[in-house]
């Protein structure tokens, strides 16, 4: 904000977010709140940002108390991306982006999921397909009160992992990967998810060297989930799969979710 002021940023001057998801969120929130809103242009440079975080207008900042507790819905004037930039990324950064790609496949895009499983995908095709999927969902539910919640598959547990580990040990995509495996295990334990789904997800995540379990205590995860921003009143809106390609939102009380999480988490 001090920089904006010193450079005389006015209401017609754009903020350009050049970078990954953290830069996009930070610059987006700053743009949303400087002079009550100045133009924002997202230029995502990582796979995770290109397929997910730069699209849809969510901006958020983390606190020690929880993930993305500060933020605003603020749509960019434009999103400009070049898949060629992805070839500059190290393996770990590509893998964390693929976690979000896998999420899109699991919640509703079986052709995409199949391509990723076969390791026979074209990056530009993957980016375009994910972007189109997210645009379609956001157009129907911009403020995350209905169908857009499906995009949070794996994120409730993933955000808890990030909080417990200080947002440093695991990247967002890595935490979400472990969260998706946990969500599938919870769904199977509840009898809501087709048997074998977790094993399929675990095999796929391991193909890309993504974690399926992390060494944090189940009890700590259960406590961290209480601060999840998707909590409405005394219910957590937890995303489950009926089977790969079909997701739904299951409202759950935090105590029940915590107990289920402890059961499946301790099983590894």
Could you walk me through the main structural features you see in this protein, from its secondary elements to its overall organization?
The protein is of the alpha/beta class and 268 residues long. 49% of the residues lie in helices and 16% in strands. The chain is built from eleven helices and eight strands. It has a three-stranded parallel sheet. The radius of gyration is 18 Å and the shape is globular. The relative contact order is 0.12.
Q: Which structural traits does this protein have?
A:
three-stranded antiparallel β-sheet, 11 helices, alpha/beta, 268 residues, 8 strands, three-stranded parallel β-sheet, globular
Map the helices and strands.
Layout (H helix, E strand, L loop, with lengths): L1 H5 L8 E5 L1 H13 L6 E5 L2 H7 L4 E6 L2 E8 L4 E2 L11 H18 L1 H9 L4 H18 L14 H10 L7 H19 L6 H11 L10 H8 L5 E2 L2 E9 L2 E7 L1 H13 L2
Parallel strand pairs: 1-2, 2-5
Antiparallel strand pairs: 3-4, 6-7, 7-8
Helix pairs in contact: 3-4, 3-6, 4-5, 4-8, 7-8, 7-10, 8-9, 8-11, 10-11
């Amino acid at each position: 904000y001090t920089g904006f002021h010193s450079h005389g940023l006015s209401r017609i001057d754009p903020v350009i977010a050049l970078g990954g998801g953290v830069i996009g969120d930070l610059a987006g929130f700053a743009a949303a709140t400087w002079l009550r809103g100045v133009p924002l242009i997202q230029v995502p440079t990582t796979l995770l940002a290109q397929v997910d975080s730069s699209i849809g207008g969510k901006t958020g900042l983390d606190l020690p108390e929880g993930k993305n507790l500060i933020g605003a819905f603020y749509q960019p004037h434009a999103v400009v991306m070049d898949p060629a930039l992805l070839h500059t990324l190290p393996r770990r950064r590509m893998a964390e982006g693929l976690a979000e790609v896998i999420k899109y496949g699991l919640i509703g895009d079986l052709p995409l999921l199949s391509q990723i499983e076969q390791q026979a995908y074209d990056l530009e095709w993957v980016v375009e397909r994910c972007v189109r999927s997210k645009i379609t969902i956001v157009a129907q539910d911009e403020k995350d009160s209905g169908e857009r919640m499906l995009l949070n598959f794996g994120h409730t547990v993933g955000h808890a992992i990030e909080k417990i580990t200080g947002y440093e040990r695991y990247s967002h995509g890595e935490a979400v990967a472990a969260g998706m495996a946990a969500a599938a295990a919870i769904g199977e334990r509840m009898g809501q998810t087709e048997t074998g789904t977790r094993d399929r997800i675990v095999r796929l995540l391991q193909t890309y060297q993504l974690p399926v379990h992390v060494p944090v205590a189940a009890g700590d995860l259960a406590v961290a989930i209480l601060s999840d921003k998707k909590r409405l009143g005394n219910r957590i809106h937890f995303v489950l799969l009926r089977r790969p390609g079909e997701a739904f939102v299951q409202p759950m009380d935090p105590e029940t979710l915590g107990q289920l999480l402890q059961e499946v988490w301790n099983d590894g």
